[in-house]
């Protein structure tokens, strides 16, 4: 009877231990899965072979080099280039600054209510995300209401993903972006070049 009880206790203890390990494994798996759901993407790089338009935003604080992705956001980039080539942005101010979030400009009225006189279709499902230095179109709370106003993110802002169209990113001058404040001026925006994003070169083995 005593031996049987001891065996029963050992069996119960062993089963409990195995059950504990199983439950722990399930909890770890759930945690990993949850993390996968909750962790946003951290890249906004266009794929290799994507067309890139290189531009420079010249401000009173310095120059900001940007890459635009017409293959990923063709309507948005075409609209931006149309405005740039017509000198629409020349002399406009950045009217909105939110610390650690965005700096926004491109409004001819300078108060967040203006635009070019037309709006464009949203392209926010293009796979580009709001990493630090993302270039995206501002709009009202209505879909397809972007026109000329754009913003640059001062830090990752993935809560904006799939809501606002990212169409490029800062490639040089992020230090300048972080110095900008409401009232600072876009002296002009120029287009430097256009071409394909090269494939990464593999080193010799």
Question: Explain this structure to me?
Answer:
- The protein has 205 residues and is α+β, with helices and mostly antiparallel strands.
- It has a single domain (51-196), classed as Cyclophilin-like (Cyclophilin, Beta Barrel), CATH 2.40.100.
- 26% of the residues lie in helices and 25% in strands.
- It contains three helices and eight strands.
- An eight-stranded antiparallel beta sheet has the order 3-4-6-5-7-2-1-8.
- Mean pLDDT is 83; it is low at 4-9, 26-43 and 199-205.
Shape: globular
- CATH architecture call: Beta Barrel
Name the beta content range.
15-25%
**In sequence order, what are the helices and strands, one letter per element?**
HEEHEEEEEHE
Percentage of residues assigned to helices: 25-40%
**What ranges have pLDDT less than 50 throughout 5 or more consecutive residues?**
4-9, 26-43, 199-205
CATH class (first level) name: Mainly Beta
Q: What do we call the CATH topology?
A: Cyclophilin
Mean pLDDT: 83
Report, as a whole number of angstroms, the end-to-end distance: 71 Å
